[in-house]
Amino acid sequence: MDKELIGKVALVTGGTKGIGRTIAERLSEAGAIVIVTARTRPIETHTKHHFIASDLTIANETDKVVSEINEKFGSIDILVNNMGGSTSPSGGFGALTDEHWENDLQLNLQSAVRIDRAILPQMVEKKSGVIIHISSVTGTLPVYQSLGGYAVAKAALNNYSKSLSKEFSQKKGSGWRLSLREW
Amino acid sequence: MEKSNKELSGKIALVTGATKGIGKAIADKLASNGATVVVTARKPSEEESIHHFIAADLTDSNAITELTGKIIEKYGTLDILINNVGGTSSPAGGFQMLSDDDWNRDIELNLLASIRLDKAMVPKMIEKNSGVVIHISSLNGKIPLYQSNFSYGVMKSALNAYSKTLANEVAKNGVRVNTVSPGMVKTTAMETFLENYAQTINKTLAEASQQLMDSLGGVPMNRLAEPEEIANMVAFLVSDGASYITGANMLVDGGTFPAV
Predict the structure, then answer these.
(1) Residue A95 falls within a domain, yes or no?
(2) Smallest CA–CA separation between A4 and chain B, in Å?
(3) HSE (side-chain half, CA atoms, 13 Å) at A18
């Protein structure tokens, strides 16, 4: 693979398993310095990634993670907001309590808002940076049987990501963009 | 009272946030079509009202339990639920102006208030295999506006997704759920919003209004909606004329939404 990301610092949230882990590996193969977060350290550690244990649904964890990265690696060039998911029960509307809704919004929307808020000023300052929000097809095609709160939060994330790209793409230097990925 | 055969005669309707603006227009319209209308707001209106008023702050989940208890006690049922309450007091000026508190407030008022009220009331509708729920959203849910309404638009998108999801789930139970997305409407809330926005961007009220219209890509009808024009759509959606309409998001925007 081309080493097109040499010298870039990338943060992948929820980067120890599944999609996040695959993204982290891919960015790393392309030459980036990759930092991954998750609540718990994986049993099998990838020595080439830098791991920071953090629960980013907790508001003040965000600044801690960002300043640790800035201190050790410098400013962040690539931010992949991959963490997300749901522990809410399936079974439709009646099965979801206030707490389920709040958890789904924290995990899938507000955690990304906070990380973006902490990192965007660095990107704006150097007129360069890329932010990806990993959303879900359920954000446009709701599935009530199993994923009510998750899907609603992903729809919110889609609108949010679009708004953010409109706001910051005009502050552009070269190479500034913001993307939304769905799967 | 004279027994009438208007299309909503005998129906019990609840309209939240209904002492002003769009909510008030909806309440008046449903009443003139024959419904018994219960309205909520945090404070009663200073004007005289023909509707049954119950004070409630819908961002407080206890207030919702109390409200639904009162309605069931007095009327035994609810046929029409209009989730109209919403809005934002978050600052304009884009992403970095918005604190966690701003986001949380917008989430509570524009999404969770509806979810809680639906959760209390929709089971009653399912029981009798009949009912209509409307969520008043905003064109902002489909056209994100970072300059003025960032977090509000995000929550209206969430509300749209939620409304669609609920519609799919309860369609088999005889309950219809629809969304109405107004564009710019002439209300006191809009006036206050424009005044604040004008101040933030250091422009006159007229300039701020024009800028908002421009940021939407232009309003082909070149005017704001009257609240009654939103109420007309709601009145149709809750009537039997809309018996095959569920999961829809109806735009009442003077042609603003640009896509096909």
Answers:
(1) yes
(2) 30
(3) 10
Residue A4 within a domain: no
B189 touches chain A (CB under 8 A): no
Total domain count, chain B: 1
Output the domain CATH number for residue B177.
3.40.50.720
- A63 interfacial to chain B (CB closer than 8 Å): no
CA distances from residue B70 to B59, B64, B119, B132, B175 in whole angstroms, order as listed: 18, 10, 16, 20, 22
Measured between beta carbons, which residues in chain B are less than 8 angstroms from residue A93? 118-119, 122, 165-166, 169-170
pTM of the complete model beyond 0.90: no
* Residue B51, min C-alpha distance to chain A (Å): 30
Residues in chain B: 260
A137 contact B CB<8A: no
Long-range contacts of B100-105 (CB under 8 A, 24+ apart): B100/A59, B100/A110, B100/A114, B102/B151, B103/A110, B103/A113, B103/B151, B105/B59
Residue A3 included in any domain: no
- Give the pLDDT of chain A (183 residues) as one tens digit per residue: 678 999 999 999 999 999 999 999 999 999 999 999 999 888 776 667 899 999 999 989 999 999 999 999 999 999 999 999 999 999 999 999 999 999 999 999 999 999 999 999 999 998 899 999 999 999 999 888 887 899 999 999 999 998 898 888 765 443 445 544 444
- Would A1 be classed as within a structural domain? no
Find the domain containing B24 and state its range.
Answer: 12-184+226-252
The values of phi and psi at residue B217, to 5°, are: 95, 15
Name the packing angle between helices B21-32 and B227-238 (round to 10°): 50
A150 is catalytic: yes
Q: How far apart are CA B254 and CA B260, in angstroms?
A: 14
Report which DSSP code applies to B112.
Answer: I
C-beta of residue B81 within 8 angstroms of C-beta of residue B118: yes
Q: How many domains does chain A have?
A: 1
Tokens linked to A128: 């360069």
Task: Write out residues 92-131 of B within 8 Å (CB-CB) of A.
Answer: 94-96, 98, 100, 103, 107, 111-112, 115-116, 118-119, 122-123
The span from the CA of B223 to the CA of B219, in Å, is 7
Domain that holds residue A130: 9-181
Q: Is position B61 within any domain?
A: yes
Does residue B219 lie in a domain region? no
- Is the residue at B177 inside a domain? yes
Contact B83, B113 (CB under 8 A): yes
